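Can anyone check this?
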Amino acid sequence: MKRALITGVTGQDGAYLASSLLNKGYEVYGTYRRISTPNFWRLEYLNVFNKINLIPADLGDTGSLFETLKISELDEIYHLAAQSFVEASFETPVATGDVTGLSVTRILEAIRQLCPDARFYFAATSEMYGKSGKTNRPLREEDFFHPMSPYAAAKLYGYWITKIYRDGYGIFAVNGILFNHESPIRGLEFVTRKVANEVAKISLELSEELRLGNLNAKRDWGYAPEYVESMWRMLQQKEPDDYVIATSEAHSVRELVQKAFDVAELDWQEYVKVDKRFLRPLDVPSLRGDYSKAKRKLGWSPKTKFNGLVEIMVKEEINRWKRWIDGERFPWDAPNYPSENRILTRASRM
């Protein structure tokens, strides 16, 4: 049985990846921060909570990461944990650089010293392209990077240090350059989930308006459960490489809003207001990816496109709020702390 570690297992991608790997017969380990305990709701939501070996770890503590790798004896490592909200990275740029960027070096150094045969996946991001997104064609692996946020700059550091450890030390290390990917378990701070959630509340007369920033920004939006499959496929190849994962379509926030309100059979212009508080100091105007390399080498292609994604998200939010009206608790309100035998620490091995 293969053993895999997922850093950031409580996040959207971590939860979906854990579910996917368990279905493939893996023994799954996942790191989490003590303060992220409430986020266990995603693992509960996907019915994998009691199937994962949980390890408390701190991305800023090298000793913590070394101990994590000693505990798990791994075949594959998926580094997904990060401060991943672009807007927040402007507010905490130094912390973002440390958690999102330097943590990659800490993990790679631990791999080099403790388990050099383990295969490593780094969650890079389309935000690294930044201004390069102005091109009219979809972006490829070899295109120029021009980050426009502290988050994107930190991810670019992680991208390059991954390549350096691959070339310099022979570690099987890959970069997944994933464009935006969403789902019903996305964080509420992200625009797709924010829109879906507020549209659902408006449709049920629980809210009266939706406030947003830049409606003109365009993104390539895909479906997260399909994107985590590409991560696994990257680590099954004979040679490590870097891949763009995308849909090759770009849609504006305005289109997202229009489609979401259409699903709820409402006129978006009656409810949406632009609020300058949500505008970023710098904002990437457009991002669209070319997934042809992933299709050719990994056999991966997106099945769910923009309209289907928005429909999935809005309908799930409407159903959640209906259940709430009927007296059911939201999954993130449930007391789903891990049982002691699911947490692995140094003390538990003595």
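Reply from J.R.: I decoded it. The first strand starts at residue 3 and ends at 7.
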